[in-house]
Design a protein that fits this description.
246 residues; 15% strand; Rossmann fold; two-stranded antiparallel ribbon; 6 helices; alpha/beta; 34% helix; six-stranded mixed β-sheet
């Protein structure tokens, strides 16, 4: 439900990267591929959603855009930054020049040294490993499950990493911008949804029912008492037969 304008409020805009060329049936985390043409268009279409929010709620867009260091997220953030830089001011003191800060802390859930293998290949590796056996059914969408290999994370661990980063950036922003702002974060669907759970915005059951639209922001509001709320922007309802994707 949309809330009325509040000029001193702080907002985090969570933006899933645009559609990209990816290897099928493979966990997306470390796939190195770029946006496809749909993804580029989605990045462009994100900008008027951001500027409309800034104008409606009378809060400026912070000039630094925080992005996952994975290519598809960085490209989405770069498209947004270039478009915002080329536009006129929104009338609420939004800056003319936007820059990117990329970080692995906004990355998707990592499967460690099994990265970029297909789901079937991962399952075969684990099956052939004498220390383990068959992976549990539904392991890829199980928020608690972590593959037993170096560098692997559970979805909840990835969400905690992302939530911690968002909180750090937003609290620093509140110290610098006393009259409200919008901070953009460009990253990945599963990690953002689990971050929203850690922030108290989504129940874990609800996380499993939702996804995120490509390059369509979900706005979370951070109150002065450090409580988080879903402010506006639609989550994508996941078909019951689908599995987690980034």
């Amino acid at each position: 439900m949309n809330m009325p304008p509040t000029s001193d409020a702080s907002y985090a805009a969570l933006i899933r990267h645009g559609d990209y060329r990816h290897r099928a049936n493979t966990p997306g985390a470390f796939q190195p591929y770029p946006l496809n043409s749909d993804g580029e268009r989605q990045g462009l279409q994100c900008v008027p959603l951001l500027t409309a929010f800034s104008e409606k709620y009378e809060v400026p867009l912070i000039p630094e855009i925080h992005s996952s260091s994975l290519l598809r997220a960085w490209q989405t953030a770069d498209i947004i930054a270039q478009e915002l830089t080329g536009m006129n001011d929104t009338g609420v003191d939004s800056p003319r020049h936007h820059t990117l800060i990329q970080t692995p802390l906004l990355g998707e859930r990592c499967v460690g040294n099994l990265a970029n293998l297909t789901v079937a290949e991962i399952e075969q590796v684990v099956r052939d490993d004498p220390r383990y056996g068959d992976l549990p059914e539904g392991w890829k969408s199980n928020s608690h499950f972590r593959l037993p290999y170096p560098g692997a994370e559970s979805l909840l661990q990835a969400g905690q990493r992302v939530a911690d980063y968002i909180v750090q950036v937003m609290q620093a922003g509140q110290q610098r911008h006393r009259h409200g702002f919008v901070q953009l974060f460009v990253g990945h669907g599963a990690a953002f949804r689990h971050a929203a759970h850690h922030l108290g915005v989504l129940s874990l059951a609800r996380v499993g029912q939702l996804s995120m639209h490509h390059a369509r922001p979900v706005f979370l509001r951070l109150d002065a008492d450090q409580c988080w709320h879903h402010h506006s922007g639609d989550w994508k309802v996941r078909p019951k037969t689908s599995r987690y994707t980034d």
